[in-house]
From TrEMBL, chain A:
Keyword Signal among UniProt keywords: yes
Family per similarity comment: Belongs to the bacterial solute-binding protein 5 family.
Record-level GO BP terms: peptide transport
Name under which the protein is recorded: Peptide ABC transporter substrate-binding protein
Keywords for the protein's UniProt record, in alphabetical order: Signal
Annotated signal sequence range: 1-21
Location within or outside the cell: Periplasm
One CC-aspect GO term: outer membrane-bounded periplasmic space
Gene3D superfamilies, per database record: Dipeptide-binding Protein, Domain 3, Periplasmic binding protein-like II
Originating organism: Methylobacterium variabile
TrEMBL record, chain B:
Protein name, per record: ABC transporter permease
Cellular localization per UniProt: Cell membrane
SUPFAM superfamilies: MetI-like
BP-aspect Gene Ontology terms: transmembrane transport
Membrane-protein topology: Multi-pass membrane protein
GO CC terms in record: plasma membrane
Any Pfam family the entry gives: BPD_transp_1
TrEMBL record, chain C:
Protein name: ABC transporter permease
PANTHER family assigned: D,D-DIPEPTIDE TRANSPORT SYSTEM PERMEASE PROTEIN DDPC-RELATED, OLIGOPEPTIDE TRANSPORT SYSTEM PERMEASE PROTEIN APPC
A Pfam family the protein falls into: BPD_transp_1
Cellular component terms (Gene Ontology): plasma membrane
PROSITE patterns named in the record: ABC_TM1
CDD domains in UniProt: TM_PBP2
Automatic annotation (TrEMBL), chain D:
Protein name in the entry: Microcin ABC transporter ATP-binding protein
SUPFAM superfamilies with a match to the protein in the record: P-loop containing nucleoside triphosphate hydrolases
Family from the record: Belongs to the ABC transporter superfamily.
Native source species: Methylobacterium variabile
Main location class: membrane
GO process terms (BP): peptide transport; transmembrane transport
Length: 516, 323, 292, 539
């Protein structure tokens, strides 16, 4: 695990090295695909993927994270933690200004924390242990925690805790503030215009607080609803950048091989998207552990990766993605073994009831995957009916627990306390959200382990707790883990330094430049 | 005529209101709601978040009062507000409508004129090779799935031949103005308008042909022949003019549906029109926006039907009496 | 007033059977042959391809005409295109026929009532029909499928719900003209009940135009089904042609055959139905038939 | 007649026109010869299917595609028209031979102004300037007696009455002063008074311009009115030819004699007066049709029945005559309760038919039955003849076998073979169908028969047979009959009393003999005067 990260770092350094050989040249326009069209760009209100991708250029967080998820300076230039792990002090950059010219100060940070606690569900969870935020001087912010929180340094990237201008939002109704349509941040690019259904245009922020950056004059985010059309747009040179997930995976190998095209799978380390099948632990055949294990044995993950995902991603071994801290590869148990699946089904006393399988309504790849999974399960002797839904239907069915098996994938945010525990602890069993413990798994020992892991300080304390919990979960098979997903970013090779952190394209284009 | 128009408008408004009520309930029968969609897209969300969104969308109100509020605003010619897009529905539709009208209008005019031309040619040459070729081609286009032609057209003209752009309304960021911009838009327009128009052209070819054949058997055509008129004059002045009446009716019906019916073309060609807006609004359960699109496209249908009737009355002097 | 008998009196012998008229129409015969092949494919699919068409039988992207086992190649998951086409035939036919039948079941009685009863009933029914004709039909179909959530039955229902208004209008028009026909008046005069008159005198005589319209509606329904499936609104458990085109479009560049074959098959089927419709029209409505 | 003085305009010799294979005969027209002479009207007479219209169309080169000339010549001056090409035909049509058609309602382009359609005549032959053409159109309109010529040339066809349209057609045909005019049943679709005017117009114009006219008709009354010479056609062959007086007065061919004898005369036979009990009594019947209208427009009102009252005695035949739009058919339908009256009563014995509703009405209907006009539209094409006749009795509770037995008897009664039971309407001729219609009406053993133009669509010889049948049945079964017709000759033959209707009103009602001998109302007089052939017959 550690080794991979080191290797990754070395590789990225090597890439940085080649880039350094060519000095960045300012100027140029980046044409990027955005899919689907975001509902808005106000990052504190909306956390959709496309919103984050575009707004990551407009807003900034206090920190950024490298490929190994170590903190990098953002709007905070330095930081420190007290011995007891309960007090964190951030020094802010002094020359940052909002796009309307007002200076960025500690008051904005305090205001943002307050605002986000109301509007941002993930920030609300992440900030749960923050007792107070204070500003001893305009460029220093102190977070005091009620008890230690292991992953605290990992919650400050732009999508998780974006900085919002106090002078615009204070005292207003956040939801209807007109500035939501013309977002103002401190980021390297400023919002210019949005032609709904066509494109969003950002322009260079000339007063950006990092000298010499950014390099690009403008960024156009093109809305192209049809996946095939997006692929054609890249081929014909209409767009230069296809962020991860914007073309179907079937097209990735072909587009990557086009002359002058480069691709990277980096930039997703922070999110570490992890896919699995929700198995309804409450009722039906899936309530039976042996049946759930049978499902896991029946799935051909290598086929899914090689054929459905065109070789992208890797089979998931358990609840922790390999880029999440304390991932334990030894916890692995399930390989493709239809015979064993059949035996387990017999043991479970499965009598051929039809099981409803909910594909994830996010495009062709997921649909194909569901079709392939259905075949896998039927080969093992499970009778499966695919249930078609759209996004709204899927969300309703999963959050109302009205399913037997459902595809999903979720971000893990680098730390088990931020992105893993929510799916397995019993306190997170609640209707109305598709992201909590939807499967309804309840195990007191797991609950306790995740509680302890979150407040333990230091890797030495946290690692054994999490390794144990991985073993328990794999054995109980509350869900059937599938693949660690990779969403390669495809660009023209003349676009440099687009992906420089573990947050990838979502971290903004502040380092990117185009060779001309 | 003014009375007729007023009567039709009054009737149209009633139909529109009925459509609003019907669709209002219809849409809400769909599983899920906009709050869930947004929560889902966010990749994170708890009950508080979803509840906040519901409040924001005014979904926490009882259904009848939501309908009453909507009807009130509709009567005031206000299509409401899309909370999801953070914009008034009218603005959103207003931004998309010109593109749709351009696309469907072009497709309509091209298909109508080509269809009538080819259809009358086929009728005149009924039974000959030219007739067989034209009707065969029309039948082929009529039977071809629109989306399939679109895909094939993109492959051929955009990818293989690189003659025409494959998607979008114009070259974004090229900074064209004036004529250059118009030319650019036209280049983008060609493929979607043609593929959309092919089907309708087929319809008009068939309609014109059969209508002309039917009219050509009427007595007054014999009268015209008995006058010693040339075949061209007979075809043009006597047959075609009368044969066009049913075509006008059909065209009126279709011009209306073209407004809302270009979902497929707009999706495949990434044309920023309201057909696509409707589909997206549906998937996002953006109720106000979806209803707004329905209201506007239905209103368009009614307007086009009215225009057709007015045209019909202008062309056919008999109507006044028949009514 | 004096209705002279037409120029060439239709002597009894001149009337030829509609079947003969139909079979003399070369297009209709071609259409019939194609349709027969499609029906045969649907019937033979479970025999020739007993395993599910969803089964991954070969490596993905096998081009057509290279492997004997998969003559038309495989799709992105290695499923047999030929098997998909065969099994899809059934779905297309079922959707086409059942939705058309459903539309007729809605449309014919409404049209008959409106046309025969006239007055307020007619007015009310026509306003109702207008309502459905004013909303763009494809958009309405999409919304309906989305509401009901995609499945074979919801698709059939949606297609039926958007395609009945023309039936109603046609039947109404026919009934309206038949109502004043003398043999209908004769039936009234001889004291037959309204229901009997509709069933015995009126509706049988609207049959020809309805049959013609229905054949075209089946074609349109198959197109609609494929369009909905193309947008991903099809039944995920049924292999259908529209689904195949939709699933193949993302890989159309690498594997043209995945989209091309089902596209061609849809085209041919719809074409066949249209040809049959034209043939039926010529045979059953000789008034409208082509130039002698 | 001096042959040298006759200027032959068109000479038709041995003309044969072939029908497509598979028809009931090989040739539509078989070896027909005739001359069209300047200043003379040649009437081509025959029943339907005689080929008379084909001859007319052959003269214009307007034969249907399937009909080909196989032999013979049509000489116009030095040219054989049959041999000329399309361009020559176009030059001939309108300029040298012009034609008017049967249906003035459909023979004019509905979308063009009358004047423009007249002007087209000049345009087609490259004559005059557009301005002159318009002036000539007005002059022509005036010549054919159209009212307000300046205005009417700007009108559309639908704004004209049937007679005015036929005048417009004639004006068009005369525009280029053709030597020959072909008139194909030009007055058949017109009311009798209008017919008289149009016949007079044609006659006048023909004399004034010294044209040769080929006049196609099936009506011997019209022949008597207008013909100089007559040519009788049967099955495409000439049966008899000669001067009008000779053919009408001393017909040689048996067929001609049969035809002529079938034409009803204007002298009603003397009938014993009837004053038995009233079978039907109609009191104060009112019906006004309201069309169009709405919030912003005043509706158009047409009176179909204005205070109509009459009684029909048992065993009596009451004729209801009038022109189109007089309301006679509406009265028939009101009596049948096929339409609802605005006011008034129809009493059937003691029963007030207008009061009955639903089931009671359905039951009462068996007492009064109807025979319809159109033999092709009055029988359901999809039901066997047996079922058509039996449906009524079955609806009134008779078992199907009994009803079929009754149908068999009725077929025998109306003179049809019992085998007809199993067959379908399209297998029968018009006259046979009308017999089936009568059988259907009789199946319910009614007291009253309403015959609405029951013989109007039939050829004259068939018409005579059906009339005889009706007469016979009425007497044998003791029926009363309300007989609606536009044809005064028919009315004279069959009716005991006759009511003359105009604009929804009965203007005169008396016995047939009295009405013809001594018409009182001016409208009745006008109607009687207009009957074609009356003058010559009287002379």
């Amino acid at each position: 695990m550690l080794k991979t990260i080191v290797a990754g770092t070395v590789l990225s350094l090597a890439l940085a090295g080649t880039a350094l050989a060519q000095a960045p040249k300012p100027g140029g326009i980046a044409n990027v695909v955005i899919q689907p069209e975001p509902p808005g760009l106000m990052l504190a209100m909306l956390q959709n993927g496309p919103t984050q991708m575009v707004a990551g250029n407009i807003y900034e967080g206090l920190l950024r994270y490298d490929f190994a998820l170590k903190p990098l300076p953002g709007l905070a230039e330095s930081w420190s933690m007290s011995e007891d792990g309960k007090t964190y002090t951030f020094k802010l950059v002094k020359n940052a200004t909002w796009h309307d010219g007002k200076p960025f100060t500690a008051d904005d940070v305090i205001f943002s924390v307050e605002l986000l606690r109301q509007t941002h569900p993930r920030a609300r969870g992440n900030l749960a242990k923050v007792a107070s935020v204070t500003a001893p001087d305009p460029y220093t912010v102190v977070f005091s925690l009620s008890e230690p929180f292991g992953p605290f340094m990992g919650i400050f990237e732009v999508g998780s805790l974006p900085m919002i201008p106090k002078h615009i939002y204070a005292g207003t109704d956040y939801k209807t503030n007109p500035a939501n349509n013309t977002p103002i941040g401190t980021g390297p690019y400023m919002f210019k215009e949005w032609k709904k259904g066509s494109y969003i245009r950002l322009v260079k922020n000339p007063n950006y607080h990092v000298a010499g950056k950014p390099y690009l004059d403008e960024i156009y985010w093109h809305v192209i609803p049809d996946a095939a059309a997006r692929a054609v747009a890249f081929e014909t040179g209409k767009v230069d950048i296809l962020p991860g997930g914007s073309v179907e995976n079937f097209d990735v190998p072909r587009l990557s091989k086009i002359k002058g095209a480069c691709s990277t799978t980096k930039g997703w380390e922070f999110f570490s998207p992890h896919s699995w099948l929700w198995l309804n632990n409450r009722k039906g055949p899936t309530a039976n552990k042996a049946f759930r294990q049978a499902v896991s044995y029946a799935l051909d993950r290598d086929f899914a990766r090689d054929v459905v995902w065109n070789g992208l991603g890797k089979p998931a071994t358990g609840p922790f993605s390999s880029s999440v801290r304390y991932h334990d590869p030894k916890a692995a148990k399930y390989s493709y073994d239809p015979a064993k699946a059949k035996a387990l089904l017999k043991e479970a006393g499965y009598k051929g009831e039809t099981v409803r399988l909910l594909p994830l309504p996010y495009g062709e790849t997921w649909q194909r995957w569901a079709e392939a999974a259905k075949q896998n399960l039927e080969d093992a002797g499970i009778k499966v009916e695919l249930v078609a839904t759209d996004v709204a239907g899927w969300n309703q069915k999963t959050s109302d627990w009205d399913y037997d098996i459902a595809f999903t994938y979720l971000y893990q945010y680098g730390d088990p306390a931020l992105g893993v525990g929510r799916n397995y602890v019993s306190s997170q069993i609640a209707k109305g959200s598709p992201f909590n413990n939807v499967e309804g798994y309840s195990n007191p020992s797991v609950d306790e382990a995740f509680a302890k892991g979150a407040v333990a300080v230091g890797d030495d304390q946290r690692r054994p707790i999490y390794e144990a919990v991985q073993k328990t979960l794999v054995e109980d098979a509350p869900v059937a883990w599938l693949l660690e997903l990779q969403f390669p970013t495809i660009t023209r090779c003349k676009v440099h330094d687009l992906v420089t952190t573990g947050i990838g394209v979502n971290d903004g284009f502040r380092d990117a430049w185009i060779e001309r | 005529m003014a009375g007729f128009v007023a009567r039709r408008i009054a009737k149209g408004i009633l139909v529109l209101l009925a459509i609003v009520v019907l669709n209002f309930f219809l849409i809400r029968l769909a599983p899920g709601d906009p709050a869930l969609v947004m929560a889902g897209e966010a990749g994170a969300g708890d009950e508080v978040f979803v509840a906040q969104l519901r409040e924001k969308f005014a979904l926490d109100q009882p259904l009848p009062s939501q309908l009453a509020a909507y009807l009130r605003s509709i009567v005031g010619l206000d299509l409401g507000y899309s909370v999801r897009q953070q914009m008034p529905v009218a603005t959103l539709i207003g931004e998309r409508l010109p593109a749709t009208l351009l696309l469907t209008g072009t497709a309509f005019l091209v298909s109508l004129s080509l269809g009538v031309l080819l259809g009358s040619l086929a009728a005149r040459r009924a039974g000959t090779l030219a007739d067989t070729a034209i009707t065969g081609m029309a039948l082929l286009f009529y039977a071809t799935p629109l989306f399939w032609v679109s895909l094939m057209a993109i492959i051929l003209f955009s990818v293989r031949l690189e003659w025409l752009p494959s998607f979008g309304f114009e070259t974004v960021g090229a900074g064209y103005t004036g004529l250059a911009r118009a030319a650019d838009i036209v280049r983008h327009l060609v493929l979607p308008a043609l593929t959309l128009g092919l089907f309708f052209m087929a319809v008009y070819v068939r309609m014109t042909r059969s209508s002309m054949l039917e009219v050509s058997r009427l007595d007054f055509v014999k009268t015209a022949r008995a006058k010693g008129l040339t075949e061209g004059v007979i075809q043009r002045r006597h047959i075609l003019r009368n044969a066009l009446l049913p075509v006008v009716t059909l065209a009126g019906l279709q011009a209306g549906t073209l407004v809302g019916g270009a979902v497929l073309t707009e999706t495949v060609f990434a044309w920023p029109g309201i057909g696509r807006l409707m589909y997206e609004a549906l998937l996002q359960r953006d109720y106000n926006l979806l209803l707004g699109v329905f209201v506007v496209s239905s209103a368009m249908v009614l307007i086009f039907n009215l225009v057709t009737d007015v045209v019909y009355r202008a062309v056919d002097p008999r109507i006044e009496v028949a009514r | 007033m004096n209705n002279a008998v037409p120029l060439s009196a239709p002597a009894p012998a001149r009337r030829r059977g509609p079947l003969a008229a139909f079979l003399r129409h070369p297009g209709a015969v071609i259409g019939l042959v194609i349709l027969a092949l499609v029906v045969a494919a649907a019937l033979l699919a479970p025999i020739l391809y007993p395993t599910s068409p969803w089964r991954m039988v070969q490596r993905p992207f096998v081009p057509p005409f290279t492997l004997e086992r998969v003559p038309l190649g495989t799709d992105a998951l290695g499923r047999d295109i030929a098997a998909g086409l065969m099994h899809g035939a059934g779905v297309s036919l079922i959707v086409g026929l059942v939705s058309t039948l459903a539309a007729l079941v809605i449309g014919v009685p409404l049209g008959a009532l409106a046309g025969y009863l006239g007055g307020r009933v007619d007015d009310a029914l026509m306003r109702f029909t207008e309502l459905f004709q004013t909303v763009p039909s494809f958009a309405l179909a999409i919304v309906l499928v989305a509401i009901l959530q995609p499945s074979l039955s919801s698709m059939i229902l949606a297609i039926a719900l958007v395609s009945w208004p023309p039936v109603t209008r046609l039947v109404r028009g026919e009934v309206l003209s038949l109502r004043s026909r003398e043999y209908v008046q004769a039936a009234i005069v001889t004291g037959q009940t309204t229901f009997t008159i509709l069933r015995r005198e009126v509706l049988p005589n609207t049959l020809s135009p309805i049959v013609v319209l229905a054949s075209l509606m089946v074609a349109t329904a198959i197109l609609l089904e494929s369009s909905l499936s193309f947008l991903g609104l099809g039944d995920p458990n049924r292999m259908s042609w529209g689904f195949m085109v939709g699933a193949g479009r993302t890989v159309i560049r690498q594997a043209w055959w995945i989209t091309a074959f089902p596209g061609v098959v849809i085209l041919l089927t719809v074409l066949a139905l249209n040809l049959i419709g034209e043939g039926l029209n010529d045979a059953l409505n000789p008034r409208l038939s082509r130039e002698r | 007649m001096d042959t040298d003085a006759r200027r032959i305009a068109v000479a038709v010799r041995d003309l044969s026109l072939a029908l497509p294979a598979g028809g009931d005969r090989a040739n539509a027209v078989d070896g027909v010869s005739f001359d069209l002479v300047a200043g003379e009207i040649l009437c081509l007479v025959g029943e339907s299917g005689s080929g008379k219209s084909m001859c007319a169309h052959a003269l214009m080169g307007l034969l249907p595609k399937a009909v080909r000339p196989v032999s013979g010549t049509i000489r116009l001056g030095d040219t054989d028209l049959l041999g000329q090409d399309d361009a020559a035909w176009r030059d001939t049509r309108g300029r040298r031979i012009a034609m008017i058609f049967q249906e003035p309602m459909t023979a004019l382009n509905p979308l063009m102004r009358i004047g423009d359609q007249m002007a087209e005549m000049f345009e087609a032959h490259g004559q005059l300037t557009p301005k002159e053409r318009r002036a000539r159109a007005v002059a022509l309109a005036r010549e054919v007696g159209l009212p307000e010529p300046e205005r009417i040339v700007r009108a559309y066809p639908h704004q004209l009455s049937g007679g005015q349209r036929q005048r417009a057609m004639i004006a068009m045909a005369l525009a280029l002063e053709p030597a020959v005019l072909v008139a194909d049943e030009p007055t058949t679709a017109l009311d009798v008074t209008t017919q008289a005017q149009i016949l007079k117009l044609i006659r006048d114009l023909q004399r004034r311009r010294n044209m040769a006219v080929l006049f196609i008709t099936h009506d011997f009354g019209v022949v008597a009115e207008i013909a100089d010479r007559v040519l009788v056609l049967r099955h495409g062959r000439v049966v008899e030819e000669g001067p009008a007086a000779a053919v009408l007065g001393r017909p040689q061919a048996p067929y001609t004699r049969t035809l002529l004898s079938a034409v009803p005369t204007m002298d009603p036979p003397t009938r014993p007066p009837l004053s038995g009990p009233k079978a039907v009594e109609v009191v104060g019947l009112q019906k006004t049709y309201v069309t169009g209208g709405g919030l912003w427009r005043a509706p158009r009102r047409t009176a179909a029945a204005r205070d109509v009252a009459f009684a029909l005695h048992r065993g009596e035949t009451l004729g209801l005559v009038g022109e189109s739009g007089s309301g006679k058919s509406s009265v028939a339908r009101l009596v049948m309760r096929l339409i609802e009256p605005d006011a008034g009563q129809v009493r059937l014995g003691d029963t007030d038919l207008t009061r009955l509703r639903g089931e009671a009405l359905r039951q009462a209907r068996s007492r009064i039955q109807m025979v319809f006009q159109d033999p092709f539209a009055s029988l359901n094409p999809r039901r066997s003849v047996g079922r058509i006749i039996a449906d009524g009795p079955v609806a009134h509770g008779v078992s199907l076998p009994d009803a079929m037995e009754r149908a068999r008897r009725l077929l025998d009664l109306v003179g049809l073979d019992a085998k007809a039971l199993e067959r379908f309407p399209h297998e029968f001729s018009g006259g046979q169908r009308q017999r089936i219609g009568i059988a259907r009406a009789l199946a319910l053993e009614p007291e009253v028969l309403v015959a609405d133009e029951a013989v109007s669509a039939l050829d004259v010889s068939v018409q005579a047979q059906v009339l005889a049948l009706l007469e016979d049945l009425k007497t044998r079964l003791g029926l009363s009959m309300l007989f609606i017709t536009h044809d005064l000759r028919v009315a004279a033959q069959i009716c005991d009393r006759i009511a003359v209707m105009r604009q929804g009103e009965i203007v005169e009602l008396k016995t047939a003999g009295a009405l013809f001998a001594n018409p009182e109302h001016p409208y009745t007089r006008a109607l009687l005067d207009a009957v074609p052939g009356r003058v010559r017959q009287a002379a």
